[in-house]
Amino acid sequence: MSTADIRTEIRHLLKERNAVLLAHNYMRDEVQAIADITGDSLQLSMEAAKTAADVIVFCGVHFMAESAAILSPGKKVLLPRADAGCPMADMVDVSGLQALKAQHPGLPVVTYVNSSAAVKAESDICCTSANAVSVVRSLKEQKLIFAPDRNLGRWIAKQLPDKEFIYWEGYCPTHERLTADRVQEIKAAHPDALFICHPECAPEVSALADHVCSTSGMYSYCAKSTTKKFIIGTEAGILFKLREDSPDKEFILASPALICPNMKLTSLEDILLALQTMQPTVTVSEEVRLKAQAALDKMLAVPRD
Ligand code: 13P
Ligand code: SF4
To answer: Is 305 a member of any domain?
Structure first.
C-alpha cells in the first residue's frame, strides 16, 4: 500500500468509526500531519474530555491514552503502539508514593500527568508542564509532595519561592541528555538566537534559557517573538509545527540526543492497523479511574495565569 493510500484509508476509517485522531507534539511529522488535533499534554487531555467521538485514537505514549480513558469513560481509547511508554512515568509506583506520603502525613500530592493512572489515583491533584505553576499556586498548603519529575518540580519551586517541595527524584531521560555544556556551545555558535527549553530539562539547562515553557507554549512564544532564530531544548518532534507555523524563522535543535524513542514508535501503518482491528485498547479499572479522574478534574478546574 502506498503512503497516500494508507492516509486515505486512515481518514476513511476514522469517519466510519466516528473516531478522532489526537497526536502529541513529539510524534513523527507524518503522524502530526494526519491528526485531527495536535497539542501538548494539557490540550490533549482537554480534547479527550470534551470530544463527541466514540473512539479516541491516541498517538502518544501510554499515560496519555490512560488520561483519555480516565476522562472519557464509555469511549474506546486506542493506543496504536502498546509498547509506547514513558520511562519517567515508570519511575514512580503506587507503593513508593504511599511510602513517601506516610513519611510526610497530611501533605498534598501534586503529580505530573506523566504518571500511571494508579499513581494519579494516589494523588490530590495533577499538573502538566503548561499549568504546573498555577496548580501549585492554587494549593492552600505551603508544603507539598511533587512527583515524579524532579526537574519540573525544581523549576516550579523557582517561580514559587514561598512553597516548600518534597521531590520524587524522577526525570525524563530524553531531556536530561541535554547538558549545560552543550547549550553553552550551541549558544556560542549562534549568538543571535534565543534559547528556549522545556521544564523537564535539568535545572542548570533551564537556568541558561531565555524562556522555559511547555511544548505548546513554545509555538506561541516563537510565533509572537520578533526574533528570527531559536535554539530548541525539547524533543525533536516539536520542530515540525514550529517550522510550519513560522517558515521565515530558523529553529535549531539544541542537541541531536533530544529524541524520545517512545514518541517515535507510532507509524501511519500502526494507526491504520489499530483502526482496522480496533486494538490495542487502553482501559483503566473503575475504582482507579474515579480517583484518578478526581485528581485530573481538580487540575482542569484551576484557572490558568
Ligand atoms: P508537554 O509539554 O506536552 O506537556 O509534554 C512534555 C512531555 O514530555 C510529554 O511526554
Ligand atoms: Fe516520557 Fe520524556 Fe518521552 Fe515525554 S519525552 S514521553 S517525558 S521519556
So the answer is: no
